């Protein structure tokens, strides 16, 4: 969601911080700000709107001596929670009489009571944010101690909620203090300088050597020195890690939008996700990160998938595949509800937490709840070193590469590819024969080539999309494995084109939604070959009888479906479990072209953020 960048070193900080903010724009935000520390004290610049507006406000900053003399600073892009997106609510926030300056990701849940106490002590507030409460709290504690790091510790012991913070003070302008609880902070290490961020993409152009903070870590940073301790002041050691992708991976590479680039990335991303993980001789998957031997797999009685949004839709495919391949109980749960309904889990359950970022707050909460109840917990994430990956202790990385566009594409298809391999491994530990396993391996190996064929039809899909640029409502329907495809297709078009779209199991149409159909209403019917396709054809006829315009997502050569639909999008023939991937890629392109033709901000849709790190 919000983005943090901090710098302490020998160079001028402004350019480094502003370039870092630009790298974080994909996360979604509504205001931006920067604080610079140097011989002239700490100076704050902020405004609502985009980073470009902040740069404009700074003017010719590269030729302004007072800015160039600042060799430390913090910067932020805010996604509004407490208070609307205004300049007053933008970060950084100053505490006390300006002694402390702070940027913050997360939510301070007890901010109201803390605000009342601070106001009683005479502190004046200029914003509606919970962050300003924390800045005043640190400033108050700084009156009792000479050290900013000690003041931060004292303040955070009074806080309930989540935070990733980076702060500085006028008395020690070269010192940054960072801390985290539930909101990621990564520290980039370089010679004589240190760069702090909430996301490695803001660091990668400077260094690949990083430290990921754990919850309740507090770090004091000064130039190239990093001292990490716990909230109760005990020294701690965190391992140094290397970022395994280059800065080129976060560039558009000549494409008009990051989303389009990432759609085209998918064949290679899926190859990376399955590389070395399929054993064609034994007909099984090799998933060493799960750290589960066949004996352990046999003892498992149930798999529970948890996720939110796109990851939840991927989990639904996983549920179907585990039931099909392994004939064992499987459930998919909305992660936000998991811990609040006192779920029944045991040591014979495997909970698989699905999250692109590995930082999704609701999914992380589900991980902790399941671990507390004794379940076997694993993560399925894309970001190495993320909180879910570290706390789960076992799992599978997607290796999809960085995903910049807010609307997820390659993360979903790689999630599904990995989930099919999980189901295959489960199946081979039970009753699935070697021959059946070998056939599934072959089909999964074919997926990258099939996706290439779908991507090559982008222009044809654009021709279909041009018929729907004026529509305000759409339905997506499917059955079986194609039901989660319909959900994901509807999610994509509503995210980036602002068309109100709903995904339904096709059988549910007659139980209410069909009342909304009228002449001209678009219905996207996922008609790939597989069980239930004939029933969906019947649902298509019901929609057309009420004047709906039907776009059929069909298998190549399916003339029956072609004849009944008003428009068609074709995908190559494959089993229904891998068709979930090719069909989804086609619907990603359909959503992309509708949004493009509607002139929507595709990579940064309004009100959305890439990584949802608050509940």
Describe what this molecule looks like in 3D.
Strand 25, helix 18 and strand 26 form a beta-alpha-beta unit. The N and C termini lie close together (12 Å). Helices cover 36% and strands 24% of the residues. Helix 7 runs parallel beside helix 13, helix 13 packs antiparallel against helix 19 and helix 14 packs parallel to helix 19. It is built from 19 helices and 26 strands. It is of the alpha/beta class. It has 3 domains: 248 residues, Glutamine Phosphoribosylpyrophosphate, subunit 1, domain 1; 203 residues, Rossmann fold; 159 residues, Rossmann fold, CATH 3.40.50. The strands form 5 sheets. The protein has an 8-stranded antiparallel beta sheet, with helices on one face. The protein has a 6-stranded antiparallel beta sheet with strand order 5-6-7-8-12-13. It has a 5-stranded parallel beta sheet with strand order 18-17-19-20-21, sandwiched between helices.
Main sheet properties: 8 strands, antiparallel
CATH superfamily of the largest domain: Aminohydrolase, N-terminal nucleophile (Ntn) domain
The coarse silhouette is globular
CATH class of the largest domain: Alpha Beta
User: Over the alpha carbons, how many angstroms does the gyration radius reach?
Assistant: 25 Å
Beta-strand portion reads: 15-25%
Mean pLDDT: 91
- Number of E-type strands: 26
| Strand order, sheet with most strands | 3-2-4-1-10-9-11-14
The CATH topology annotation of the largest domain reads as Glutamine Phosphoribosylpyrophosphate, subunit 1, domain 1
Structural class: alpha/beta
Compute the number of structural domains. Answer: 3
Poorly predicted runs are none
Architecture per CATH nomenclature, i.e. the level-2 architecture of the largest domain: 4-Layer Sandwich
Count of runs of 4 or more consecutive helical residues: 19
Fraction of helical residues: 25-40%
Terminal CA distance: 12 Å
